[in-house]
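Record pair follows.
FIRST:
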Amino acid sequence: DVQLQASGGGLVQAGGSLRLSCATSGFSFDDYTIGWFRQAPGKDREEISCISNSDGNIQYVDSVKGRFTISSDNAKNTVYLQMNSLKPEDTAVYYCKGVSYGGTVYWGQGTQVTVSS
């Protein structure tokens, strides 16, 4: 079975840090781009970062550049999102998504991140 298990969310004060993990199984990790998305209450889900496991290409949305770092551990089939200097506006449910070169998409369940001011 395909699984993407997001974890690491929690409650943190503004300025703090969290590291999210997206542990995957059931598909060829090296052939997928893994992205992190977030959805705040009343807002659309937005992609904030992604990493291609085939060529290492990394992208960030402007709002998290310089604060968030995405990385991939191919030995563990896990992608991480290190989030530093967190702001209240980062509060959201965070999801990971895997997309293959051929367009196959898998979503993981969300993990709640709450940043208090």
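SECOND:
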Amino acid sequence: QVRLVESGGGSVQPGGSLRLSCLASGFSVRDDYWGWFRQAPEKEREGVATMDSIGRDRYADSAKGRFTISRDTAKNTLYLQLNGLKTADTTMYFCAKGRSDSTWPEDGRGQGTQVTVSS
């Protein structure tokens, strides 16, 4: 059973940066399919960035050029670097695991970390 614990959220001004971390246990971040999605209460989930087992990454149009997904297999941790933050990026961010691009994030998610962007 996968267990995911996110951290790194916070409050920043527009244009600021944050790095989100997701410590995984139960599965290696080197295997299967991992990523980040964001979701506000009563809103649809939006996939932000994903990474497959060989390190290929994909991004939502809203994230391209600003966000970067990465992993540290020694620490079994997934990261999401958020740069150039906008007020529209304000919401909860979740780390999640799946087995493929088409089924992610069926294997579970963490409790989330809040990102707030305001002036």
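COMMENT: The two ends are 40 Å apart (CA to CA).
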